[in-house]
Amino acid sequence: MNRILCLxxxxxxxxxxxxxxxxxxxxxxxxVTCRRxxxxxxxxxxxADELEKKGHRVDACPWNGDFAAFQGADAIILRxxxxxxxxxEGFLRWLDRLxxxxxxxxxxxxxxxRNLVKDYVLELEAAGISVxxxxxWERSSNESLQAIFEKHGWQxxxxxxxxxxxxxxxxxVVMSEIDDWVTTIADSEPQKKWLVQEFLPEVLESGExxxxxxxGDFSHAVVKHTQKGEFRVxxxxxxxxxxxxxxxxxxxxxxxxxxxxxxxxxxxxIDGVIREEGRFILCEMELNEPALYLQYAPGQASRFAxx
Length: 307
Known about the structure:
It comes from candidate division KSB3 bacterium. With 307 residues, this protein is of the alpha+beta class. The protein folds into 3 domains: 2-106, Rossmann fold; 119-129 and 202-306, ATP-grasp fold, B domain (D-amino Acid Aminotransferase, Chain A, domain 1, 2-Layer Sandwich), CATH 3.30.470.20; 134-198, Dna Ligase, domain 1 (2-Layer Sandwich). Helices cover 31% and strands 24% of the residues. The chain contains 11 helices and 13 strands. A 5-stranded antiparallel β-sheet has the order 11-10-9-12-13. A 4-stranded parallel β-sheet has the order 2-1-3-4, with helices on one face. α3 (42-53) packs across α11. The chain starts with a helix and ends with a helix.
């Protein structure tokens, strides 16, 4: 009898042990990557470490890999699916397949899909958000690029695909180079639609500001400066990053864009520049797979993990 009682007590103690309790509450969290970049980024590794400290399991799985890797996940976080623009239709099919499973995806699939097409800036402008002067153009359009430049009084402008990432095919084009750009770029990508935007000299003068929000609350910011002779600040163009401390007024202006969404996202990065009068000009609202630069913000990885 004593032996049976002893075994029962040992079993109870095992069940109540910290390790057992930790495992019973363990969540499977998948950070989405891609075949070109299968591993977690430096920033995302910090978040994964925090989640693992809490007893959760974190896997890095490419969206264009084995779909079975996502089955049974408690949360799927879009983080480094940075090659999606090379197979947009495939990425959309993958999102639809995820949606059919009913699995929790962050950010929510509907707002991610809308965020893929960069003409959302026109909707933000209609909602009272300051954005660069923006027009749209496609190869089959009756309106020429020259006409768009002339309409806005531009001698130069930035042209970017409406669906794109990492600065891919983003070019600064001057009026005299339009025909060359059409021949070398637009004709080779005849199905693409393009944004035509005013060039923002502030990017060269004071840098592009990136403000990161978790659940709609400001977390931290960095400023990205260009290399000499470059206007893009993406990592492949070797943009120079440093921690930034924006004023409450700038934070409020940037955060206002999130209020236009039907759902407040888990994470968001708002990129833009500051005009002399203190007005924030939103260049992009990144809700799909933005780098969050947590390596520049000690302590904020735990905040994201908690969120």
